[in-house]
Amino acid sequence: MRLLIVGTLGGQLAVASRMAMDRGASVVHADSVETALKTLRSGRGADLIMIDVALNIGDLIRRLEQELIHVPVVACGTTTNARAAVEAIRAGAKEYIPLPPDPELIAAVLAAVAEESRDLIVRDDAMARVLRLADQVAASEASILITGESGTGKEVLARHVHRKSNRADKPFIAVNCAAIPEQLLESELFGHEKGAFTGAIARRIGKFEEADGGTLLLDEISEMDLRLQAKLLRAIQERLIDRVGGARPVPVNIRILATSNRTLADEVRKGTFREDLLYRLNVVNLKIPPLRERPADVIALAEHFAEKYAKVNGLKPKAIGAEARRQLMRARWPGNVRELENCMHRAVLVAAGDEIGPDAILTPDGELMGAPERPDLDRTVARAAETAEAVTRALVGRTVADVERDLILSTLDHCFGNRTHAANILGISIRTMRNKLKEYAEEGHPVPPPGQGEAREVA
C-alpha cells in the first residue's frame, strides 16, 4: 500500500502519515499539487492520495485525468471546513477525512483502498497443497497464473509469492486490470512520453518501470483488451516496453504474476484472450479452491478476523460460540474469504456479551447466516430431483426419433389436437408439424384428430 500525502495542515497530515505507516503503508510527501504530479510521473507511484482540502483538489484531479494517471484521491481538513469538504467531493475526491485524524478511520480508508487483507491463514489440506507449490516455485523467475473465484485471496497469495522470492526487497506493484478504464490502462502499465496525447505535458513512468527489479501483479488479466494483450506479450517475451508515444524501447527486469477469476482456456476459445499470452503467463498455475472446499480454514479465518476487527474498533476480543461456529460451517460462502471477513466484522460490532453468538452471524440484510433450509422446501426439492432423474432414465436407450415422436404426440394431445397451438409450443412450423403427423399416421401410430376450428387433414 503506497500513500502520497500532499500538503501539511500544520503537521496534522504528518500524524496521519505515522498512523498509515503503523498499518504497513509506505508514505511519500509532497508540499504542492505540482510536486505530487512530478512524484507520480517519476515512477514513485501511489495507491492513494491524501490531500489538504485547502489545496486545489479540482485542479489535481483534472490534471490526473489529462495525464491518464489513475489513483483515488481523499481530501483531508479540519472538522470546521464543511464547505471545503463538500467542494472537494464535488471536485472528484472519493472521501473526506476530518482532522485531527482518527486511527480507526485511517485504517478503514487504507483497507478500503487495499481491498484485500494481506493475512494468509491456512489450516485446510486443500489450501496447504497450493501453498506448498507456491513456496516451491516462489524463488524461480517463472511467470505464475493464480486462479480462483472472486474473494478467495488471489492477491494475498501473490504477495506471499513475492515475499518468498529472490525479489522480496524490490517493489511489488499491483494493477487491477478490471478497475482501470481501457483507455487509461495502456498508459498506466507502460507510461507515456511528453506530447504523446492531449494532456501529456511531461514524461510519465508506468507500472512496468515502477516494478523494475521486482514483481508486477496483473490482477484480473482476463479483463484486458486484446490489443493491449499483444503489447503485453511482447513486454513479457522481450523484457522491453514501449511508452505511449515513445521512440525507443525501454528494458525492464520484472517477474510477472497474474490473476483471473475466469477460466482463461474458455476465454481463448471465445476469442477474448490470446492463446500465446496464456502460455506465457501459465508456466505455473496456482488454483485456489473456494472457501466451501476448505472447511478447516473457515473457523481459523473467522477467529483471525474476529480478533482483527475487535482491535481495529477498540473492542474487547470475543470468542466465537459453539453454535456460531456451526453456523459458519453450514454457510456456503459464495463470496469466499472476503464475504467471511465482512461477516465477522459485522459479528464483532453487533455481538452482545463476551461471546459471539449465533444471532451475530448475519448476512448484510440482517438474516441469519448458514441457517438450515426449511424441511418442506427440502422435500419439494428432493421430489423434483427424483422426478427429473426418472424422466432421464426413461429416455436412456431410445432413439432421438422415438423421443421426438412421443414429444410431438403428447404435446398435440395436451392441446386437444390443435396443430397450431402444439407447433407454437414446440417451436416448429405448422408445415413441419403436419409432415411429422402424416409420417406417424402412415407408420400406424394413433394421431389425435384436429382440434375445434381447425381443418381436417390427412394426418
UniProtKB/TrEMBL annotation:
Residues annotated with 4-aspartylphosphate modification: D52
- Which UniProt keyword terms apply here? Activator, ATP-binding, DNA-binding, Nucleotide-binding, Phosphoprotein, Transcription, Transcription regulation, Two-component regulatory system
Coiled-coil region(s) at which residues? none
Matching SUPFAM superfamilies: CheY-like, Homeodomain-like, P-loop containing nucleoside triphosphate hydrolases
Q: Which GO terms describe its biological process?
A: phosphorelay signal transduction system; regulation of DNA-templated transcription
What are the protein's GO molecular function terms? ATP binding; sequence-specific DNA binding
Pfam families from the xrefs? AAA_lid_14, HTH_8, Sigma54_activat
Question: Which segments constitute the Response regulatory domain?
Answer: 2-114
Source organism, top-level taxon: Bacteria
InterPro entries from the xrefs?
Answer: AAA+_ATPase, AAA_lid_NorR, CheY-like_superfamily, Homeodomain-like_sf, HTH_Fis, P-loop_NTPase, Sig_transdc_resp-reg_receiver, Sigma_54_int
Domain Sigma-54 factor interaction stretches = 120-349
| SMART domains linked to this entry | AAA (SM00382), REC (SM00448)
State the PANTHER family in the record. Answer: TRANSCRIPTIONAL REGULATORY PROTEIN (PTHR32071), TRANSCRIPTIONAL REGULATORY PROTEIN FLGR (PTHR32071:SF21)
Q: What is this protein called?
A: Sigma-54 dependent transcriptional regulator
Origin species, per record, is Prosthecodimorpha staleyi
